[in-house]
Recover the amino acids of this structure.
């Protein structure tokens, strides 16, 4: 599938463990994961000892590691639930990070072959992105593709790719009301492409299956936003949607690209959407304010790094969103705190 | 494929005839084309009588019809070559227009079934578009798809779709230098999706295989832009790239959508890319000015119809682009003249 030559020493695969027994998950991915260094972060709310099969090269982080790093940092910062993966992002020293939810196994492509999600993310991240003009034949750097007639030659060299967002077969990444309304709905459409999401276009990034260039955008991928009653099911969370919009704004500002599409993973069933309907749809409601905010946000020319950008975003959140809802005030504070943690982790 | 119920009386299929013998082309499309009213426009530079097989319901327009309508209009307006199709757009009284180049035949989808391109364009045009936020699972109105987690509910009703841009298998729509550089390159990747091109994102629209809502965006799809040495091969033309950017600006301003993706058509070989390299790459060079112009163009709030918008675009072309190159001055004049022709054709 991919012809990218991967330097394995540049990649960390980060796994947030929300279940104790990772055996079947790890075995499904063994041909891929066994080639790389893994960072496994145990959900600090998950009691017990993880079961991890032999034959993998990994560092494991647990509650005590997290508490040690957090130290006296804001109590509002939480690495529990799906947010535990972000602790792995913070600890990594590699150029690239690939993260895949522990309820996902390799998907099959349209010819029935298993998809090497890591190789595809690395292809996406190591070939240029083209955010300033849309190529109708999608990613021109995919094998067999090119720029179509009318595409300005001056834009064909593209820019570095900061984030690669993969997709999901079987259980799509729907919100609780949609999943509850259409309990039978499964995504079985294999769309064989990658595209650059155009500059200034916002999108709902899912954290289920992503890769990113940690050196370029790492500080934006930290768990600043947490719902009051966040659960341990994907449809009950929006932390990744928030960080995704932060990354997109950062990439747009720094002239980096965000790609979406391949690779797919196969998502297994987890949870009961009807049950989750009993909770408040806090995340769903908040999007009505979050999306227009990020769509209109413009950073100053003095913001030259992802760290600078996140600090500016935090300041804007505080001014524009926080007065309406304390959840945004906390997010702004957390962003400031997390950038400090990020810097500290880099200098140790 | 499509479950859209099509009102056949609302659709004109427009065919620009660049070759005298349309027999094999029409026969390939018979199951589809025979259901609709066709408008066939003979390239006014093409001498002789068209061969059109029996069993189709069509109006044929030739050089004398074109000359009659043009009358004393600007001599600069030309409906020759690929531009002949636009005369059909001008003459149509239907709500929707589908246009397919006469060197294209039905494509097969990934399961080997013939693609009904007209049905897919009608699905694209009659379901909402979502230009204000990108849905990572592509067109949420495709069968089996939906909005993903994080997509604001307030944006889920979408907006009307103005333009549907289909794609090409086999011979991709490349420019002459790319085709000459990679003579063996063929597009064989069937990407099974449709997406809304986000608002404020420009794209190179190809006129090879499109559908549009004539009532909403018709005045923008007229042949205002013509290269000095335009040939009769697709890679030698950019008239559709120009009109495509006009339509996109119009749609963005009027809060309409532009979709891209399915349906595919199969493009047969025509012409010699190496030969075309001997010509000037005028179109390729002009894109360097055309794209930034359209990207930064913003229309006034008083522009309430596509006609208003095109008139404003013409004025901006005259001020911003024309001083650098007389080809733009002519384009601006043509746009003004074509809007007059459009209005006249509507009132007759």
């Amino acid at each position: 599938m991919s012809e990218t030559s991967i330097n394995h020493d540049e990649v960390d695969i980060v796994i947030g463990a929300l279940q104790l027994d990772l055996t079947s998950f790890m075995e499904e991915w063994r041909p891929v994961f066994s080639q790389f260094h893994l960072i496994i972060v145990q959900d600090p709310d998950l009691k017990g000892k993880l079961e991890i099969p032999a034959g993998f090269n990994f560092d494991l982080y647990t509650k005590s590691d997290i508490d040690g790093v957090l130290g006296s940092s804001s109590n509002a910062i939480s690495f529990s639930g799906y947010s535990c993966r972000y602790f792995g992002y913070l600890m990594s020293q590699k150029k690239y990070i690939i993260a895949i939810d522990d309820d996902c196994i390799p998907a099959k492509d349209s010819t029935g072959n298993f998809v090497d999600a890591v190789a595809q993310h690395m292809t996406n991240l190591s070939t240029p992105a083209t955010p300033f003009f849309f190529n109708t034949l999608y990613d021109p750097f995919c094998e067999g593709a090119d720029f179509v007639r009318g595409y300005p030659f001056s834009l064909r060299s593209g820019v570095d790719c900061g984030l690669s967002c993969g997709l999901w077969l079987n259980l799509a990444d729907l919100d609780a009301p949609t999943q509850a309304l259409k309990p039978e709905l499964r995504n079985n459409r294999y769309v064989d492409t990658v595209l650059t999401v155009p500059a200034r276009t916002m999108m709902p990034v899912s954290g289920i299956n992503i890769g990113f260039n940690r050196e370029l955008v790492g500080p934006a991928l930290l768990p600043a936003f947490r719902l009051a009653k966040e659960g341990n099911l994907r449809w009950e969370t929006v932390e990744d949607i928030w960080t995704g919009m932060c990354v997109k704004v950062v990439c747009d500002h720094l002239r980096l690209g965000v790609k979406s599409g391949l690779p797919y993973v196969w998502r297994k069933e987890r949870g009961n959407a009807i049950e989750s309907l009993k909770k408040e749809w806090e995340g769903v409601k908040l999007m009505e304010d979050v999306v227009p905010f990020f769509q209109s946000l413009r950073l100053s020319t003095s913001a030259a790094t992802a760290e600078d950008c996140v600090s500016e975003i935090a300041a804007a959140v505080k001014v524009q969103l926080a007065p309406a809802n304390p959840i945004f005030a906390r997010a702004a504070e957390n962003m400031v705190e997390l950038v400090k943690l990020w810097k500290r982790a880099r200098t140790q």
Remarks:
- The first strand of chain A starts at residue 11 and ends at 17.
- Strands of chain A lie at 11-17, 37-42, 57-61, 96-100, 104-106, 161-170, 194-196, 209-213, 257-267.
- Chain A touches chain B through 61 residues (CB under 8 Å).
- The radius of gyration of chain A is 19 Å.
